[in-house]
């Protein structure tokens, strides 16, 4: 049996577009003389469709798409993912279409409802296993989460399956590839059953889907893997008698380390901008490391002709910051402007002079600087249709070291799930490709430059300490005693936890950001804004 694997980049809700991708892959499968082609989970509507699933008219469009696929009368069987409404409820199904008939429909049984998943909000669980005979081979079907637990695979094997096909929509986070491969290999090995694992790719709001569709033999060895962070198409020849699997092309290695994270960020920016109809992107280029890394990601994602940056200096901006921003823009070949915020700031202060009379200068004046810059960027975005990329990293967003309606104003925060220490590593990595970030930007002490001689570490622990505490508290849910036992100063730990908890209201107002860790702010980590939990940690 020749099995084609279609690893496509779908757009949630655009059923017509997704249908055209499916038809294009079907034509490729036909030209390769495939017997069956497998698409990813919910391929017709894209994943995750969220509350689009509550719209009755969605199902009319999906039904029309299914009818169109049936009318093609193709000799190649298709495994198509889509939602289906039935009297018993709504189901996440994999439908097998051959010629002008539906052979079987498998209803996903295990519905993930943790981390970024909330499938139980929408779907009912299926209750029947599925093995169907096709061209002399007994083919089993399982969808995504079904494959992460031993029992469904064992039941399919017991029903006589010779091979298992699994449509998936498995979102990316760093290290997911190794975990995924270990689990899929275990299912294959436990049951001596080859598995064809098909994943989608692409960015969907905060989520990245990395592809890496793969085939595992009955010994649990990954014998073939498709491209990471890119669309791909391939087929395998499966010999039922010997169990031999012969892929149509060579095995592709996965990315690792900073390269893997960089490619995920590039994919996320590209798809967020293009799928939402933006003509390009723009950002404030400060001469600091965060905006330098964000700019390089944007250029790699969208091309230099579609990115522009603005340096918005003020009296506290160091001359080296302006020089470094200009050097970054020149190295990447982008459009670059310099617009001073001094006149705008003075206008604000003049209008507020009577209200501020008799008060001391404090963070208010610093925030006005940031808000002048945010207003400038949003005006340029409105005028020229470009997406504003904000540049706050996870460390800053965690402790609220950012300004509402200032540096937080924009459409996408590229580094929202990237710690400050990882930002430095990404800068070093990107410079190995071509040197676009000046060495001084990487080595100088970080500063918001909102006050004279300001440095981040005047207000925060050193970033290597801060990031370790944040990882323990935010990503691992460790408490104060556990973090202190790791060797960190109790006063630092208490202050960081307090800052994280009192700044939830800020994080709710940040733009969406690209998820690269197992616990990202946003749809992943959901904490109440109104909460007294963190107050107890401010001091002992």
Automatic annotation (TrEMBL):
Binding site for L-glutamine: 114, 170, 176
Pfam families in the cross-refs: CN_hydrolase (PF00795), NAD_synthase (PF02540)
GO biological process: NAD+ biosynthetic process
Reaction(s) the record says it catalyses: deamido-NAD(+) + L-glutamine + ATP + H2O = L-glutamate + AMP + diphosphate + NAD(+) + H(+)
Residues that coordinate or bind ATP: 284-291, 391
Keyword ATP-binding: yes
One Gene Ontology MF term: NAD+ synthase activity
Alphabetical keyword list: ATP-binding, Ligase, NAD, Nucleotide-binding
EC number, UniProt record: 6.3.5.1
One GO cellular component term noted in the UniProt record for this chain: cytoplasm
Domain of life: Bacteria
Keyword DNA repair attached: no
PROSITE patterns (alphabetical): CN_HYDROLASE (PS50263)
Broadest EC class assigned to this enzyme: ligase
Pathway listed: Cofactor biosynthesis; NAD(+) biosynthesis; NAD(+) from deamido-NAD(+) (L-Gln route): step 1/1
Family: Belongs to the NAD synthetase family.
Official protein name in the record: Glutamine-dependent NAD(+) synthetase
Source organism: Kangiella profundi
């Amino acid at each position: 049996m020749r099995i084609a694997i279609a690893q496509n980049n779908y757009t949630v809700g655009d059923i017509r577009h997704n249908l055209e991708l499916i038809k294009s892959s079907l034509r490729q499968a036909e030209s390769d003389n495939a017997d069956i082609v497998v698409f990813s989970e919910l391929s017709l509507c894209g994943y995750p469709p969220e509350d689009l699933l509550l719209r009755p008219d969605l199902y009319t469009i999906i039904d029309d798409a299914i009818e169109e696929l049936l009318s093609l009368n193709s000799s190649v069987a298709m495994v198509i993912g889509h939602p289906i409404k039935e009297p018993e409820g709504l189901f996440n199904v994999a439908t097998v279409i051959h010629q002008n008939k539906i052979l079987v429909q498998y209803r996903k049984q295990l519905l993930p409802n943790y981390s970024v998943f909330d499938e139980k909000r929408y779907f009912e669980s299926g209750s029947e296993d599925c093995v169907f005979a096709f061209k002399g081979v007994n083919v089993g079907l399982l969808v995504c989460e079904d494959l992460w637990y031993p029992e469904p695979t064992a039941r399919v094997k017991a029903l006589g399956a010779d091979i298992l096909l699994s449509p998936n929509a498995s979102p990316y986070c760093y290290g997911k590839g190794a975990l995924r491969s270990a689990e899929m290999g275990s299912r294959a090995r436990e049951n001596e059953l080859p598995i064809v694992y098909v994943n989608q790719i692409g960015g969907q709001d905060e989520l990245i889907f990395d592809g890496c569709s793969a085939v595992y033999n009955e010994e649990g060895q990954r014998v073939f893997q498709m491209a990471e962070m890119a669309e791909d198409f391939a087929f395998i020849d499966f010999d039922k008698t010997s169990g031999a699997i012969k892929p149509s092309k060579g095995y592709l290695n996965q990315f690792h380390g900073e390269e893997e994270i960089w490619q995920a960020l590039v994919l996320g920016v590209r798809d967020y901008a293009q799928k939402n109809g933006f003509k390009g992107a723009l950002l404030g280029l400060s001469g600091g490391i965060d905006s330098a890394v964000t700019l390089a990601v944007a250029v790699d994602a969208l091309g230099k002709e579609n990115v522009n940056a603005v340096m918005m200096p003020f009296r506290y901006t160091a001359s080296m910051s302006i020089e470094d921003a200009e050097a970054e823009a020149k190295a990447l070949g982008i459009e670059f402007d310099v617009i001073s915020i001094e006149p705008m700031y003075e206008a604000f202060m003049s209008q507020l002079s009577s209200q501020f009379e008799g008060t001391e200068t404090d963070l208010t004046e610093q925030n006005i600087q940031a808000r002048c810059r945010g207003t400038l960027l949003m005006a340029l975005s409105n005028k020229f249709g470009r997406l504003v990329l904000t540049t706050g990293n996870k460390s800053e967003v965690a402790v609220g070291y950012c300004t509402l309606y200032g540096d937080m104003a924009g459409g996408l925060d590229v580094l929202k799930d990237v710690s400050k220490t990882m930002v430095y590593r990404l800068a070093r990595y990107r410079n190995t490709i071509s040197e676009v970030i000046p060495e001084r930007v990487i080595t100088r002490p970080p500063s918001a430059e909102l006050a004279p001689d300001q440095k981040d570490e005047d207000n925060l622990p050193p970033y290597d300490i801060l990031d370790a505490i944040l990882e323990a508290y935010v990503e691992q849910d460790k408490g104060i005693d556990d973090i202190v036992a790791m060797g960190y100063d109790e006063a630092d730990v208490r202050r960081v936890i307090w800052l994280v908890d009192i700044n939830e209201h800020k994080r709710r107002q940040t733009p969406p950001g690209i998820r690269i860790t197992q616990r990202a702010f946003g749809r992943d980590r959901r904490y109440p804004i109104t909460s007294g939990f963190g107050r107890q940690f401010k001091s002992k």
